[in-house]
Amino acid sequence: MRTLTLLKTLCIALVLGLPLSGLAQAWPTKPIKWIIPYTPGGITDNATRMVVQKVQEQTGWNIVIENKPGANSILGADLAARATPDGYTFLTVIGAHAANATLYAGRLPYDVVKSFAPVSLVGIAPLVMVVNNNLPVKDIKELVAYSKANPGKVAFGSSGVGAAAHLTQELFKQVTGADMVHVPYKGTAPALSDLMGGNLQVLTDTASAMMPHVRSGKIKPVAVFSNKRIPGAAEVPTIVESGGPSLEGSTWVLFLAPAATPRDIVNRLSQETAKAIRSPELKARFEALGIESVGSTPEQAGKFLDEEIVKWAKVIKAADVKAE
């Protein structure tokens, strides 16, 4: 009797499991919505669209991208967190997602980690520090010395409070003791305009945003926040080569799904993402933008996000950064 009961239980479990398995195998049966919590254009939007287009070519899936900017990416992330975890909603996040865990502690409508399932770390874009042509420095060593000799007179800009560029500069200040004043802007473009106009002394941002102006001679490169030179800015020395400490600062692109999204769907998308990123075509396009291709497993993506949250929490608290 005990054996018969056990067999019945196993059969029921198998029967109940069949519809779930069937659904997963049939996925996707309708268009997939992909949320980008930023405006069109820029490194986040461009990188996502490149990867998604390649994934569609590989699989034949129909993926519809929706740009949902607002509140330092919180609006778009919240929409994804609230979505049904059925494999038909995904989200792109960058460094701001990790910083928001500390900047908006206790005020977010979702949990930065628990509300999502990591899919893949797409790529990492080390940041480049540049200065205006009138600043009498040519490397990190001279910049630090000049800022200390001219307290309060060196201003660094950023695309906004809590942006990867802002926090990287705060980390730089903490480690070097450089005397710099933060001036937040509503995006990189106005900060870059003030830099070229001589109204701002220092700016840190992605290679794709900085290098065209460096190569046209409108601004001077100082260093890249990486332990090695990057293809998109090969002529720019690393921070150590420029006479500074070993520091890394970057923006990055990471794919997430709502928590409880079926694991086999997450794994499938992760595999297709990695395949797309490692294609020679996409790798070359990423390098031109100063992005280091990754294409990780969900576990690796989750570990990376955890480490970024801890890293920037320390910087935010030490610099007493407050969200706008």
Report on the architecture of this protein:
Strand 5 (155-158), helix 6 (164-176) and strand 6 (181-184) form a beta-alpha-beta unit. The radius of gyration is 22 Å and the shape is globular. Helix content is 46%, strand content 19%. The chain folds into two domains: 31-125 and 251-319, Bordetella uptake gene, domain 1 (D-Maltodextrin-Binding Protein, domain 2, 3-Layer(aba) Sandwich), CATH 3.40.190.150; 126-233, D-Maltodextrin-Binding Protein, domain 2 (3-Layer(aba) Sandwich), CATH 3.40.190.10. The chain contains eleven helices and ten strands. It is an alpha/beta fold. The model is unreliable at 1-23 (pLDDT under 50). Strands 1, 2, 3, 4, 5, 6, 7, 8, 9 and 10 form a ten-stranded mixed β-sheet that branches. It has helices at 2-26, 42-59, 74-82, 95-103, 140-149, 164-176, 188-196, 207-215, 263-277, 280-288, 298-319; strands at 32-36, 63-67, 89-93, 116-132, 155-158, 181-184, 202-206, 219-224, 250-258, 292-293.
The outline comes out as globular
Major β-sheet profile: 10 strands, mixed
Mean of all residue-level pLDDT scores: 92
Supply the number of structural domains: 2
**H and E string:** HEHEHEHEHEHEHEHEEHHEH
Range of helix content: 40-55%
CATH structural fold name of the largest domain:
D-Maltodextrin-Binding Protein, domain 2
CATH architecture of the largest domain: 3-Layer(aba) Sandwich
Strand content: 15-25%
Instruction: Using the coordinates above, name the CATH class of the largest domain.
Output: Alpha Beta
Determine the number of helices (DSSP H or I, runs of at least 4 residues): 11
